[in-house]
Design a protein that fits this description.
The chain has 240 residues and is mainly alpha-helical. The protein has ten helices and five strands; from the N terminus they run H-H-E-E-H-H-H-E-H-H-E-E-H-H-H. Helix content is 59%, strand content 5%. A hairpin with a 5-residue loop joins strand 1 and strand 2. Helix 9 crosses helix 10. The protein is globular and about 75 Å long. It binds a DNA duplex (9 and 8 nucleotides) through helix 2.
DNA sequence: ATTCTCACA
DNA sequence: TGTGAGCA
């Protein structure tokens, strides 16, 4: 019997067959032959998969299924940047079609695996990182806001690239700083448009929304450019 | 009961 | 990739 934290190949397959129905034991072994996986072994030769191994396998399956990546490419990406497999520019396939019903309600955290395809522990970590806020039910159960579903799914995608809740924390603090900046900018914007007093008309509201959208797009471009510049610099340094 | 390797389609 | 034989 394997030690705590390690799973045999059968357990691993059963655990992941929820998300990847066509996963088989032979396929997992095949992936190992191709050099994408290297679990430890018991003295008798049985494969033992650590949490890391399982997560790596999840990433491979995700890349293959949702991203249609050939195994050869996945291998290169995974080996190249131990941890961050970024530099993939395909946008997320929108797996998120929640109806109003789901969106307006709060849902028990235990149902996140079936609802969003992410582990409960992951949702808790997002909460600890400040990305989302959990609510307590009268019975002491943790509830998740339906409005956060899309955000959680997005964070779940990021997880496959080695970007987890810890890394996301910086986006929370960044969002706080930036929202303060935008609010200030909107005040200035309001004074320029409608005199000292700002009326809360519907028209005003739309202008605010539009101004905010523009600011988000523009600052986003700045951010994109700066990041790409830094990355290309890093890469050119590597080739020397 | 399960997994292992290896040969093979 | 997947299957089946024969083992441990």
């Amino acid at each position: 019997m394997p030690d705590a934290g390690y799973l045999t190949i059968g357990k691993v397959v059963k655990r992941l067959q929820g998300q990847y129905p066509d996963l088989s034991i032979s396929k997992v072994r095949y992936l190992e032959d191709e050099g994408l996986l290297n679990p430890s072994r018991t003295p008798s030769g049985y494969r033992l998969y650590s949490q890391k191994d399982v997560h790596r396998l999840e990433t491979i399956l995700y890349l293959q299924k949702n991203r249609f990546m050939p195994l050869s490419v996945i291998k290169q990406q995974l080996d190249g940047g131990e941890g961050h497999v970024s530099l993939v520019q395909t946008p997320c396939p929108n797996v998120g079609e929640d109806d109003e019903e789901v969106l307006q309600k709060f849902h028990p955290i235990d149902r996140m695996p079936e609802l969003l395809g992410v582990p409960v522990s992951f949702v808790r970590q997002l909460s600890e990182a400040g990305v989302i806020q959990l609510r307590e039910s009268p019975h002491g159960r943790s509830l998740v806001d339906g409005k956060d579903f899309q955000l959680i799914r997005t964070c779940g995608e990021l997880r496959h690239f080695g970007i987890g809740p810890k890394n996301l924390r910086q986006y929370v603090t960044a969002a706080n700083r930036e929202s303060a900046m935008f609010e200030q900018a909107l005040v200035v914007f309001a004074k320029k448009g409608g005199g000292v007093e700002m009326e809360r008309t519907e028209e005003n509201r739309q202008q605010f929304g539009q101004a905010l959208s523009e600011m988000l797009a523009l600052t986003g471009q700045v951010r994109d450019t700066l990041i790409r510049r830094q990355i290309s610099k890093t890469f050119s340094e590597m080739e020397e």
